[in-house]
User: Fold these one by one.
Assistant:
Number 1:
Amino acid sequence: MSLSLAFKSIISSQAIRNSLNPSLIGIQRRFQSNEFKNILTEVRGKDKNIGFIQLNRPKAFNALNAELMTELEQAVKKFDADPSIGCIVLTGSNRAFAAGADIKEMQNKSFSEVCKGNFLSNWTALAESKTPVIAAVNGFALGGGCEIAMMCDIILAGEKAEFGQPEIVIGTIPGAGGTQRLTRVVGKSKAMEMVLTGDRISAKEAQLYGLVSAVHPVDNLVDEAVKLAERITRHSKLTVQLAKEAVNSAYETTLAQGINLERRLFHATFATNDRKEGMTAFVEKRKPNFTDS
Ligand code: HXC
């Protein structure tokens, strides 16, 4: 049995959990971390396999300052490297997912400072995660907040969510993928309208344009995101990773290149135990027992 499977069976037993010895308590603490100042992290889901990250600067509407972004990068990389984690959920508060990069922090920066320091170049951890990431967006997702939501694989929105790229209003433009990812998702005309006016769109409109996959009541949103994450984690982690790579390639390649890559990745699943197990389980009319191998 792998270490992660062993750990899952340990924590699923309440009786054993009550008699945890100090070393096991140490392992469990890893999943309920207060090691960060601007975000909260914990492990959720019935099988404790969902990495949960909550942006937590409520007084600043979760404005994304350098310290928060460094912490977010560390948390995403840690969950991504953890074999027991099959999906990550990223959320904010009911009022704000994130109201953008921290304007107070940027206010006095000079061109040479941001250029020489390559400001924003470290905002890539979410987009680089091999583990699927679901953004659960309640409230404002503006500027950098909309941009980090778009770095995630799936966006679910609460009914009162609002999305926008209002940088133009403060004399700048999107700098973490807003002009690129938004345009690929909603098309040139709507992206231009949003980027050139700074106007926000509602959750319903965001769903209409394909920016979000579903809209839920505010209070249910996080639970729905965790449920969706759990549905993903039922499958082979290895196959999920290949499927995610194939979908993401649609944004990077020509159609012919993407179709070729997809076919090769499909072929590659025939080198895995999980492809054999999945098909065998279907034929034998039973549930598959994936081993992520
Ligand atoms: C720093 C921010 C902030 C931000 C809100 N706050 N957004 N602080 N950076 N991006 C702070 C406010 O200063 C205030 O704190 C508190 O949060 C509440 O905000 P209010 O404005 O008082 O609330 P409200 O009237 O309800 O308006 C909410 C809002 C508005 C619509 C979200 O705050 C707003 O327009 N924020 C800026 C949105 C924006 O322009 N985002 C893009 C940023 S540029 P105090 O202490 O003052 O009361 C960007 C660049 C992207 O993201 C480039 C790549 C990342």
Note: The two ends are 13 Å apart (CA to CA).
Number 2:
Amino acid sequence: MGEENKARKPHVLIFPYPGQGHINPMLQFAKRLVSKGVKVTLVTTIFLSKSLFSDPSAASIDLRTISDGFDEGGYGQAGSADVYVPTFRSVGSTSLTSLIKKLVDTGYPIHALVYDGFLPWALDVAKQFGIPSAVFFTQSCAVNSVYYHVSRGLLQLPLPGPNVYLPGLPSLQVSELPSLVCLYGSYPAWFDVVVDQFSNVDGADWMFFNIFYELEKEVVHWMSKFWKVMTIGPTIPSVYLDRRLGNDKDYGMNLFKPNTGACMSWLNGKPKGSVIYASFGSFALLEAEQMAELAWALKGSNYYFLWVVRETEEAKLPNNFIEETSEKGLVVTWSPQLEVLSHESIGCFLTHCGFNSVLEALSLGVPMLAMPQWTDQGTNAKYVEDVWGIGIRARPDEKGIVRRTVIEQCIKELLIEGEKGKEITKNAIKWKNLAKRAVDEGGSSDKNMDEFVANLLSDLRVSVFE
Ligand code: UDP
């Protein structure tokens, strides 16, 4: 391909919200676009670019930064979503505008923007330049349908209960809706973020979901009546799915430093299916009481366990827990989660049900023990147990705490494989195969990405094969 044509490759700007659970899927999506002949520039914040433990340039993705107004400390510096969200909106809009101008000036104009649903103001910026845009949702279609209904006043809050019926969704108990909706008023700034995703969405040209069609068929059909919906997931590194992206085995941007050597050498010695992997993702905070119940459940179960306790959560561990359980357990501050989940020693994943974690376990066929904490996690847990049949929910008591006996019971069900455990294992294999098929050549997600690229190319009237 000559220099002239190189410059005429479609150029897509990808703009995730600066959190691990948003960067991972959008960066992975970016890699797939690159493999289809698209030039991709990923936008992150100045603060995050200083604190990353890896570099996406290995995947031929350019990294550019903008300011969120907190260049020295990001979200932590802001101190709360009430401060962070509006500041990012105003400073970010100006900063994104400058970046787009700069890219034009340096000969790399943008042909499309793919922005995170959490950052709807990015669509307004793109409109000023006449750039076609796609909103990217990192949460499930079901969860976003709930937010859509709230945003349009079709679900009036607070909900009277006991059940909610929405098109394409199973009947949901009010407590199974995203916490920002069922516990109306709990985190007003985050509530505004998820509902505002739909404030200007009619102006977006495409709507991407990090799912695959088979996973949420009914609600995808329903949403497709209003928007150009494209399912493009699961955005899991290719080695774990179709293996078409070479040695693509991790996302490529860590906000925390993984204890890779310690995790993998510890797992290497363990028998097949014998280890519980426990993690609550990058953001959730557990109450000290919950942490203690979980700690004693892991100890009491007498299985091996690998538990991710982020540095900021470590003080909540019971005294001497690490020493007392050192023969059976390993506690780390961050893990290489995909490598861990794909290790044959893992028997189940005790998870907060962040949507990426759910998709990762689903794609790797690992049964889940669901302990949702907040936002979309309760709805994801409902789907894990009742819709996809790939896990069980450990239910909290009236104080909202999941007790040790309940956790231990769930562990036994999954690891000894009671009747439900057997069914879960069977379903896990089914979904793992469907996930792989969706992203493989000609699969539902792959076709949607090809269609997106073909659209960009027809606008440009060039071919990547010229
Ligand atoms: N993750 C990881 N190591 C860990 C814990 C999590 O690499 O020790 C990754 C995980 O693979 C996932 C992301 O961090 O891709 C967390 O996203 P998720 O949506 O599950 O949860 P969130 O952090 O957004 O609550």
Note: DSSP finds 19 helices and 15 strands in the chain.
